[in-house]
């Protein structure tokens, strides 16, 4: 099992969905709501597509239902996600307190578009702690598990990859951190399933975040 070497950490790179904000269930629910003939439930989508690139998920949906989705499907999907976020999105417990206790430079690197990132951060009151250090896979056209997004974020923040700690919730995100030669910490709230085969460090609750001075 990998252990964190906190003395080496100079910069924190957070994922957003499923890591800082409890959005994954809502994002997967939006697929169910916008593809009426889809017989996969939210649990199946969470298990198989958590953290994956939108276009890859759409391709899998089309193969499963046996038809092409409408040309404007992304707009329909994004609109449904926004509706669900407006009424149900929350930050994970103790996230704000943990962030306030972090004295190291920090940023967010997400597979989602910047518009969605800013919407999520605005709704949950977290924008003030991370702007303008937001990095989207859409800016560089590279998605996890490729390491490019994390490497891009580290370079923009002015740090070597080995000095960065990635906080992630998905298997593809952890794979991207490993490929970038960065340390990683998996956010997995108590009662949730770990990714298959994962034996690295786990954060169950932000009240135990290891790099907050309140700890």
Which labels suit this protein?
six-stranded parallel sheet; HAD-like_sf; Rossmann fold; 10 helices; 215 residues; alpha/beta; catalytic activity; DNA polymerase, domain 1
**Mean model confidence by pLDDT:** 95
Task: List low-pLDDT spans.
Answer: none
Helix fraction, binned, reads 40-55%
Task: Write the element-wise H/E pattern from the N-terminal end onward.
Answer: EHHHHHEHHEHHEHEE
Helix segment tally: 10
Q: Measured on Cα atoms, how large is the radius of gyration? A: 17 Å
Q: Give the CATH H-level superfamily of the largest domain.
A: HAD superfamily/HAD-like
Distance between the termini: 23 Å
Protein name: Haloacid dehalogenase
Cofactor: Mg(2+)
InterPro entries: Beta-PGM-like, HAD-like_sf, HAD-SF_hydro_IA, HAD_sf, PGP-like_dom2
Organism: Cohaesibacter celericrescens
């Amino acid at each position: 099992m990998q252990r964190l070497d906190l003395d080496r950490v100079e910069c924190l790179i957070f994922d957003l969905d499923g890591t800082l904000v409890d959005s994954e269930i809502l994002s997967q629910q939006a697929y169910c709501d916008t593809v009426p003939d889809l017989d996969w439930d939210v649990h199946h989508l969470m298990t198989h597509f958590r953290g994956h690139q939108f276009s890859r998920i759409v391709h899998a949906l089309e193969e499963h239902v046996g038809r092409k989705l409408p040309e404007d499907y992304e707009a329909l999907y994004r609109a449904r996600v926004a509706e669900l976020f407006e009424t149900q999105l929350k930050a994970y417990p103790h996230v704000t307190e943990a962030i306030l206790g972090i004295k190291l430079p920090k940023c967010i690197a997400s597979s989602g578009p910047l518009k969605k990132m800013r919407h999520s951060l605005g709704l949950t009151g977290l924008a003030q702690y991370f702007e303008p250090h937001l990095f989207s896979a859409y800016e560089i056209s590279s998605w996890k598990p490729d390491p490019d997004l994390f490497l891009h974020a580290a370079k923009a923040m002015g740090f070597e990859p080995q000095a960065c700690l990635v906080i992630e919730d998905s298997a593809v995100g952890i794979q991207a951190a490993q490929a970038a030669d960065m340390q990683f910490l998996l956010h997995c709230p108590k009662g949730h399933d770990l990714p298959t085969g994962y034996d690295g460090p786990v954060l169950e609750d932000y009240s135990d975040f290891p790099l907050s001075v309140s700890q």
